[in-house]
Amino acid sequence: FRLALIQLHVSAVKSDNLQRACGLVREASAKGAKVVALPECFNSPYGTKYFKQYAEKIPGESTQKLSEVAKECSVYLVGGRSIPEEDGGKLYNTCAVFGPDGAMLAKHRKVHLFDIDIPGKIQFKESETLSPGNSFSVFDTPYCKVGLGICYDIRFAEMAQVYGEKGCQLLIYPGAFNLTTGPAHWELLQRGRAVDNQVYVATVSPARDEKASYVAWGHSTVVNPWGEVIAKAGAEETVIYTDIDLTKLAEIRQQIPILNQKRWDLYGIEMKK
């Protein structure tokens, strides 16, 4: 099946972002995409000072538009992190997924909050305004099971391993790595998660905006279960496409059967929720 990643140039105008995102979903559908993913924070600037201002409930205005365009185009739409989700007086970094009938199939709240301090380069603390999610998120398609994470979630190998054990063959991470962590770890982490779990890994970033207060790395990418980069964007707004070959995935798992050769008598991963 064909996967499309929309690397959107995000502005401060929510309605413009949403309109352009929906237009690019239609374009991707016209080119044969069956699963379409939007980037983290595609409908608001990324930054703790923006989260409360742009927050919406789910369902709400933005997710309603995503539901409508998913149904119109008959695609599985991974809604990036459209906006911060407001629920019960708390804010969450949330990705909603919609099926071809417009129904919401999953709602993933970012599990690991991005709190870092690299002296002289970047300091960022999502926990100042956001609360963490407490669950894994998997949705089914006629093609395969898909596991969801958001940005910083990709650094935690245990999470991807749980998804592999749950039968996922594709992991999608909407993300917005920056100009420090992007060149160092963006592709490396994707390749690691793909090889470790013999799955396809797709990451979808906002396009780079040098004038923004937080500058995203871009370079939305798809990695196959062999660890090869099979599609990669630059820094600009674009849509990239790749065909997910589940026959190739099965062949790799047969040739190097790590999933069957793990020593569960010696170690294991426990999913608590």
From TrEMBL:
GO terms for biological process: asparagine metabolic process; glutamine metabolic process; oxaloacetate metabolic process. InterPro entries: C-N_Hydrolase, C-N_Hydrolase_sf, Nit1/2_C-N_Hydrolase. The keyword Hydrolase applies. Its EC number is 3.5.1.3. GO terms for molecular function: omega-amidase activity. Keywords: Hydrolase. GO terms for cellular component: mitochondrion. It catalyses: 2-oxosuccinamate + H2O = oxaloacetate + NH4(+); 2-oxoglutaramate + H2O = 2-oxoglutarate + NH4(+). Residues 1-246 form the CN hydrolase domain. Belongs to the carbon-nitrogen hydrolase superfamily. NIT1/NIT2 family. This is omega-amidase. It comes from Anhinga anhinga.
